[in-house]
Amino acid sequence: MPFTSLVARLPFPSAAVQRAVGIAAVLAQALIGVTGSIVRVTGSGLGCPTWPECVAGSLVPVNHPGIHALNQWIEFGNRMLTGAVILVAAVAVVTAWRVQIDHPSRTRLVKLAWTMPGGVVLQAVVGGLTVLAKLEWWTVAIHFLATTPLVWLAVLLLRAFREGDEPARPLVPAAGRGILVALAVVMWLVLAAGTTVTGAGPHSGDLNTHRLAVPVEALAQVHGGLLVLYLLLLAVFGLHLMRIGAPKSLWRHYTVVWVVALAQGALGSLQYALGVPEAMVSFHVLGAMTVIVATASLWTAGRDRGPVTSLTAAPRELTAA
Ligand code: HEM
Q: Would you say 138 and 211 are in contact if contact means Cβ atoms under 8 Å apart?
């Protein structure tokens, strides 16, 4: 395949490069959700009314009657980040591919890397449908929720760069694995419930978008209640870790989940009490992304795939074989 021989000519990515690419994938997937929310709450979707130019005659924001400079820069920044997400997705595929050329067993790594550009295409389609549906609240919710598995997959990719390809050996017994699955499911329920709160509140779509006709208070209670369930499961998982004498690394990831989930809960409660000020909405979305990253990291820390063998290039004669 001509592409393979092109990729094979690239230098082998060092351990530091592999790690940087994994981290960039996580950051790109998480931050695009945050900038999307900034565009939404500041009503900047039409800050750049044309594409690829921001305003007629200029690729970048310029003084334009009727469009506030801040809205232009916010929408322009979001476009730039979309470009960065595409670039990072492409770099992730090429890096994983280059690694696999020297280490043919690394097919899982390559598959995970391909989910990054796959996700960009999926989100482009969902985003287009959201605009066609005139930012109907449930389409905005789907657009947001579609990002969440991509953030999770990016964390798996980051981890895959530094682990082997043996079948996953759980570090916690079956009961603990069950709790981790329940924790992930409830996390997504918290996220989905959050989007219904947004759908009923003032920050869904634009001013004219029709809202979810359910009282915000009731939806916020369901959203907060699910967080309580999530924290209960987390506590039960902690007891389980104590009982099995879990390794330090698992405890470290576990503690991080507590810290980010509690901080996010506190932020959400404050935001609700203050009547959902716009600036806090984007911090809440950033917090939601951090919860996903922390939960996914705990998930990966709960299993072992053997030692990583692909941090350095294969010896020459093996490459040729
Ligand atoms: C781990 C904990 C939490 C997570 C992961 C989370 C996640 C989310 C998500 C994903 C959204 C939708 C954002 C969007 O569509 O742009 C949201 C909205 C919201 N959440 Fe949370 N949330 C958490 C805890 C809380 C708590 C404890 C409260 C307090 C009641 C709360 C209050 C809200 C409010 C008021 C909104 C609507 C904001 C708006 O108007 O757009 N959240 N949350």
A: no
